[in-house]
Amino acid sequence: MTAPTIVLVHGAFADAASFAPVTRILLDQGFTVRVPAVPNRSLLGDSAYIRSYVEQLDGPVLLAGHSYGGAVITVAGAADNVVGLVYISGYALDEGESLGQLQGGFPDSDLAANLVYTPFPLEGAEPGTDVSVKVDAFPDVFAHGVDRADAEVLAAGQRPLAAVAFSEAAPVAAWKTKPGWGIVSAADHTINPDVERFGYQRAGLKSVIEIDAPHLVMRSHPAEVAKVIADAANELA
């Protein structure tokens, strides 16, 4: 058997470029890699989009999700051709649980005080609300540990998350039927690392490693992140 296609799923306040260093490493190692743009409009909508994307790929797929992307792969990973899940500083939601509920159990982080709420129009409905990180705070809160110049570029181009995504409950938890691996960012200033530890332990992931790294661990420690993903892909081959 060949290794599965690796689909990297970015999180809130980021885009596919957040995975660029890891993508390069995995491509150089001969893996087939895809990094779709997540709409960041709602957990249910984003998960449906990624699931549809995955189901149109030939052969088995390994999903790797960062941050909010972990919640997305938890739901989208129910697709039949998904054979494994990798959580990177991510939310491993349980069935019926929302981001807000899981995060609320471990409130310590620097993120809440540095969020910006901006209305956006919705056709035929009340305006929605976009959530983003204050541009000036982004390098220290979201990209702590990343080269300052790179962090400023990421801050300028961050992809907001619609507020509704925080309250929607996951209709399914793919980790109950698919093997999983996890990375805890021990120096995370965005998500309390205990959120990651709790979710991974509850999910019974096959392997969990801790890296003394910030939330954007795939930018600060790309080799370590790529190794976890590659090892999982090779184990599933």
Automatic annotation (TrEMBL):
The organism's superkingdom is given as Bacteria
GO MF entries: catalytic activity
InterPro entries in the record, alphabetically?
AB_hydrolase_1 (IPR000073), AB_hydrolase_fold (IPR029058), Sec-Metab_Biosynth_Hydrolase (IPR052897)
Q: Name one Pfam family in it.
A: Abhydrolase_6
Query: Which PANTHER family does UniProt cross-reference here?
Result: AB HYDROLASE-1 DOMAIN-CONTAINING PROTEIN-RELATED, ESTERASE_LIPASE_THIOESTERASE DOMAIN-CONTAINING PROTEIN
Protein name, UniProt field: Uncharacterized protein
What are the leading ranks of the lineage? Answer: Bacteria, Bacillati, Actinomycetota, Actinomycetes, Micrococcales
